[in-house]
Amino acid sequence: IMDGDGDLSTTTLTITLSDVNNAPVAANTQNWMSSDPAQQTLSTPSYPDGYPLLVTIPTDADGDNLIVTATGTIPTGTFYFDGLTYVALTAGTVLYDPAGGINLLDDLVYRPTATVTDTVNVNLSLDVFDGTAHVTQTVGIHEVPPTSLPSDTAQVGNGNSPLTSGNDQTQNLSLSQATVSAITADPHGSTVVIYTDFQESPFVTPIPLGERNPGVFGDGSAGSHREQEVQVEIRIGANRFAVVEDDLTAGTFEQSWTYDPATGLMKATVDYDHIFLLDGAGVATTTTLADYLIANPPAAGDTWTLSYFDNDGGNYQARAVRFEFFSHDPGDPGITVNGDATLADQIYGTSGIDHLNGNGGNDVIIGRGGNDFLSGGGGSDLISGGDGNDLLVGGFGQDTMTGGNGADTF
């Protein structure tokens, strides 16, 4: 230290440095798969032991040893491979400890619940500890039901009394938002499936073999009675739309109903392009239900009246008619997934036609079987089409896309 005269002096300045810990950095992730457990093995790649979960390894700026432990309520169906077999994960299990030679984060799998059509959204919570600070890492797990599930259902009749004996033959349906959204997106892709137990009394299920298919017009068989007598309509306000028409002449006689072995009932599947508006005389016009809904967009809560009409009584009759409304092919097991807007997703497709969109984050999308529509969105994504003729769209970011078998489009 020097004063104004140039005199020097010395002193000691003591600075104390405190060690400040940097907390671990853990990235959350999301995982998506079909709710149908059979889909684990119905496509390539196959996942008989469960779907591998995307779990990122946490980091620490200080280089501390990190210990990751399963905590909280563990989602049912979560397993890890212990080197010999798959073990159900329990709270308190250490999944990562480099100092102890443990890394089970790459060995976590999830097996969907037994219910084929349920929607499951659960989180696996992991505690990340650097010796000083605890950080929670969340692994999202989502079971997605098949897109082919009906968005609305309704039934005419109680299944006990004949629909030709003065019982109510109509049923009101209040449209759900799911049905409305599907119609708005693609009215030409919407379908209604109708089931009936129409047969000759007495009633049994499954429909007897000899009563399933029609013969020729007017031959008196149960199958021909069904085609000639039954008319099914959807009524929107004063507008009547014929889903299945009664065939009153030999010229219009055709088979509309087919046997469904899954239910034991007779089934008719009709898309909106083949459901026609009736004029005042009850004659079909060229206006389809799809055309009408494009010109008159529906809204959630709108009421449609579902009608079943049997033009002849007697021993040939139905006791119930069930309507199921679909937005896609009702026989397809494919799923639709829209991933997280910012987090990394791992999305598994099915043997059907899947629509898988990663959105934001560095995603892993595996189409597997079927002719899939795969889109990475933002981030650096890994996209694999698998079998089928797939459409792969990388989106923004540095993406890696592999078509697999089939004629794929990039």
Structure in words:
The protein has 410 residues and is mainly beta. It has two domains: 188 residues, no CATH class; 175 residues, no CATH class. The protein is 6% helix and 34% strand. It is built from three helices and 31 strands. The strands form six sheets. Strands 7-6-3-9-10-1-25-27-29-31 form a ten-stranded mixed sheet, with no helix packed on it. The model has no long low-confidence stretch (mean pLDDT 92).
Q: Quick recap of the structure?
A:
The protein has 410 residues and is mostly beta strands. The chain contains three helices and 31 strands.
Features:
mainly beta, 10-stranded mixed beta sheet, 31 strands, 410 residues
Question: How does the SSE layout of this entry go?
Answer:
Elements: E1 29-34, E2 51-52, E3 67-71, E4 78-81, E5 86-88, E6 94-97, E7 102-103, E8 108-110, E9 120-129, E10 134-144, E11 152-156, E12 170-174, H1 177-185, E13 191-196, E14 199-200, H2 222-229, E15 230-236, E16 239-244, E17 258-260, E18 265-271, E19 276-278, E20 284-288, H3 289-295, E21 303-310, E22 316-317, E23 321-326, E24 336-338, E25 344-348, E26 355-357, E27 364-366, E28 373-375, E29 382-384, E30 391-393, E31 400-402
Parallel strand pairs: 1-10, 1-25, 24-26, 25-27, 26-28, 27-29, 28-30, 29-31
Antiparallel strand pairs: 2-8, 3-6, 3-9, 4-5, 4-8, 6-7, 9-10, 11-23, 12-21, 13-18, 13-23, 14-22, 15-16, 15-21, 16-19, 17-18, 19-20
Strand neighbour order, sheet with most strands: 7-6-3-9-10-1-25-27-29-31
Helix fraction bin: under 10%
Poorly predicted residue ranges: none
**Terminal Cα span:** 73 Å
Mean pLDDT: 92
The coarse overall form would be elongated
